[in-house]
UniProtKB/TrEMBL annotation:
InterPro entries in the record: ATPase_NBD (IPR043129), ROK (IPR000600), UDP-GlcNAc_Epase (IPR020004), UDP_GlcNAc_Epimerase_2_dom (IPR003331)
UniProt-recorded name of the protein: Bifunctional UDP-N-acetylglucosamine 2-epimerase/N-acetylmannosamine kinase
Pathway listed: Amino-sugar metabolism; N-acetylneuraminate biosynthesis
Native organism: Chrysemys picta bellii
Taxonomy, superkingdom: Eukaryota
């Protein structure tokens, strides 16, 4: 993906790749640079009940850090309309001071009224923004009110932070959302796909934060609250959890007549289904007035099975959908927030058809008959699905606050778009001529500790090697010393360091930059936070991953795996490791122990492995295993053949076994064939599990094993898996190149 970015993009003022990953002390330096510790003045503008549920967690976070921020709240749109619940009151109940109330809605609930409302907001907002003089305006989502806000702020040279850009729903909302994206200076998105969409729209990578949805911070902490009293209050005294429906349907402004007809069919289906149902009034989009007429025509407000309401406080709404038997309609909350609880959802029509969803969502795209909707209710009602965290992990607000603190107001206000190059050209920007964008790569092996400066093209510009110390204190001290020396030397080599990538043995949590458990080859290396001390010392972003995963990343970016959708890398060295690339993405697993390929068991009665089990691939085919067998032969005087000699002080190793086999030692050759067969059986298991199109053997022993592995595949694999390509890596140093690719590959960016 990095190849699609114009070289000038990363040469902006202030070095954005370093800028957004500073710790607290660096953030204070930015504040001092912004002007004598002046607080960042943030204007949060909220237009309706839906966007307030996303903005409120951020507002609480800003309010909790008065040493960094000043908060001004502007309320406009349907918040101030009685027919839509006067929802500004919930902002007051949350103890926020509302600086300005702007009546911006022109009633009529049709297309012309929406346009006139945007115009009215554009007339009123400049005076408010002139008085507030905010450093940044936070705008949410895709409403026409938000478009007016973004337009006003952009034309008045005020920075804009857009929440939830890059998403796709399927209506006019997409056009509004993407228009706001082009006006906004900074972006907070909720999903990986949304991040990729923003990048595809030529937005600057360094101004995009993948944070998750702020509402999930509240959703994921609220499940165990007293929900029965809430259900009784809104649904009825005699209603049980999972035995009621929540319905929330809005007009589709690009096809109002059809959406009204669909709403009518939905109500008919709900009446026939005969379950208690909470119906929320639609939003203020064109067509909502007609939808309300349909409700009243069918007597929904007086029907014994229905409760029709204009607004439910978000905390209570969370409990209602979490314990509902089903949610039906076309609201974004159905496909976004409800997935956090695994509640069944029926999404009607096309309004949310482009959004990412969990398996709890059943789409009824052509909801053109009552029977279709009724069948969907019978399929979904009362089901329970796995909880989905597609849209967040509950930690969005801390990330967003950190992102806000890192904004440098001294940077030029003018947006920079990152257009992909139409053809190969050479930039004449002086920084591009003088500097090579590079990464610091660190490889922590069982014996050596290596640091290298690696260029964007995978060239190792300079490499530093030391023995890996035995204690934590000595090791972390040496890493810092070597990295600082390399970073200093990079200046002399005209290399611009974008970050630090670390490859280490053991189980790693790459999200937090922590080594969870180490291999036996590296002592005192469990529960170690590598990211924090190195980032603090170098003021650079730091990524950490397992050495096998790094080898796979190296192949994906620089080696045989480039452009391959599904492949597996196996490292054959002191131990056996590997990494799995599935659909172009690295697989980490639920507890970060995916691709422990060396511990695939190929014999129940095989030799003991360092992991404590028996018959692992590593117990047969690793360098340690071959050394063990070589020592046995040497002790029995069966290793050396003509042309071989070993000095008295020389340690017997796998090298001697390989040399003996080449010189005709039948026992040594048999041991190597057994090792290669064990590796081949492991590869067959991988083929039958992951079905990759390519297997890459890496490491010092790869060349000795490749033909044996191919032979085992021909004899043991299913016919459908036999066509896999098995190749030997052509990368000279996959561990260092993989560590560098953690930094250089944009797909891993923007997660703190």
């Amino acid at each position: 993906m990095g190849s699609n970015v114009h070289p000038r993009r990363q040469q902006g003022v202030g070095g954005p790749h370093e800028l957004y990953f500073k710790n607290l002390s660096r953030q204070k330096q930015i504040m001092e640079k912004n002007g004598n510790n002046r607080k960042l003045r943030v204007c949060v503008a909220t237009c309706n009940r839906a966007d307030y549920s996303k903005l409120a967690p951020i507002m609480f976070g800003i309010k909790a850090e008065p040493q960094f921020f000043e908060l001004d709240v502007v309320v406009l749109g349907s918040h101030l309309i009685d027919d839509y619940g006067n929802t500004y009151r919930m902002i007051e109940q949350d103890d926020f001071d509302i600086h300005t109330r702007l009546h911006t809605i022109v009633r009529g609930e049709d297309e012309a009224a929406m346009v006139e409302s945007v115009g009215l907001a554009l007339v009123k907002l400049p005076d408010v923004l002139n008085r507030l003089k905010p450093d940044i305006v936070i705008v949410h989502g895709d409403r026409f009110d938000a478009l007016a806000l973004a337009t006003s702020a952009a034309l008045m040279n005020i920075r804009i932070l857009h929440i939830e850009g890059g998403e796709v729903s399927g209506t006019i909302d997409d056009s509004i959302r993407h228009a706001i994206t082009k006006l906004a200076h900074f972006h907070v998105c909720c999903t990986r796909s949304a991040e990729q969409h923003l990048i595809s729209m030529c937005e600057d990578h360094d101004r995009i934060l993948l944070a998750g949805c702020p509402s999930y911070d509240k959703l994921l902490s609220s499940k165990n609250k007293d929900y029965m009293s809430i259900i009784r209050m809104w649904i009825g005294e005699d209603v049980k959890p999972r035995d009621y429906i929540v319905a929330l349907q809005h007009p589709v402004t690009t096809d109002i007549k059809h959406s009204i007809k669909m709403f009518e069919l939905t109500l008919d289906a709900l009446i026939s289904f005969n379950k208690r149902t909470l119906v929320l009034f639609p939003n203020i989009d064109a067509g909502s007035k007609e939808m309300v007429r349909v409700m009243r025509k069918k007597g929904i407000e007086h029907h014994p099975n229905f409760r029709a309401v204009k607004h439910v406080p978000f905390e209570q709404f969370i409990q209602l959908v979490a314990h509902a038997g089903c949610v039906i309609g076309n609201s974004s909350c159905g496909v976004r927030e409800v997935g956090a609880f695994g509640t069944p959802v029926i999404n009607l029509g096309t309004r949310q058809i482009g959004r990412e969803t969990g398996e709890n969502v059943l789409h009824v795209r052509d909801a053109d008959t009552q029977d279709k909707i009724l069948q969907a209710l019978h399929l979904q009602f009362g089901q329970q699905y796995p909880c989905s965290k597609i849209y967040g992990d509950g930690n969005a607000v801390p990330r967003i606050l950190k992102f806000l603190k890192s904004i440098d107001l001294k940077e030029p206000l003018q947006k920079k778009f990152c257009f992909p190059p139409v053809k190969e050209n050479i930039s004449q920007d002086i920084d591009h001529i003088l500097e090579t964008q590079s990464a610091l790569a660190v490889d922590l092996g069982g014996t050596n500790l290596r640091v290298a400066i690696v260029s964007m093209k995978g060239e190792i510009v300079k490499k530093y090697t030391q023995l890996n110390p035995k204690t934590y204190e000595d090791r972390i001290g040496l890493i810092l010393k070597m990295c600082m020396e390399a970073a200093s030397e990079a200046v002399n080599l005209n290399c611009r360091i974008l970050g630090v990538g670390i490859s280490t043995g053991g189980r790693v949590n790459p999200r937090e930059g922590i080594v969870l458990h180490s291999t036996k080859l590296i002592q005192e290396w469990s529960s170690v936070d590598l990211r924090t001390p190195i980032s603090d010392a170098l003021h650079l972003p730091v990524w950490v991953d397992n050495d096998g995963n790094c080898a796979a990343l190296a192949e994906r970016k620089f080696g045989h795996g480039k452009g391959v959708e599904n492949f597996v890398t196996l490292i054959t060295g002191t131990g056996i490791g590997g990494g799995i690339i599935h659909q172009h993405e690295l697989i980490h697993g639920s507890s970060f122990c995916a691709a422990e390929l060396g511990h695939i068991v190929v014999s129940l009665e095989g030799p003991e492995c360092l992991c404590g089990s028996h018959g692992c691939i590593e117990a047969y085919a690793s360098g340690i295993a071959l050394q063990r067998e070589a020592k046995k032969l040497h002790d029995e005087d069966l290793l050396l053949v003509g042309g071989m000699s070993v000095k008295t002080e020389e340690t017997i190793s796998a090298v001697h076994l390989i040399q003996a086999a080449k010189l005709g030692n039948a026992k040594a050759d048999s041991i190597l064939r057994t090792a290669g067969t064990a590796l081949g059986l492991g590869v067959v298991n991988i083929l039958h599990t992951m079905n990759p199109s390519l297997v890459i053997l890496s490491g010092v022993l790869a060349g000795h094993y490749v033909n044996i592995v191919k032979d085992v595949i021909r004899r043991q694999a299913l016919f459908s898996a036999e066509t896999v390509d098995v190749v030997v890596s052509n990368l000279a140093d996959p561990a260092l190149l993989g560590a560098a690719s953690l930094v250089l590959d944009y797909s891993t960016r923007r997660i703190y």
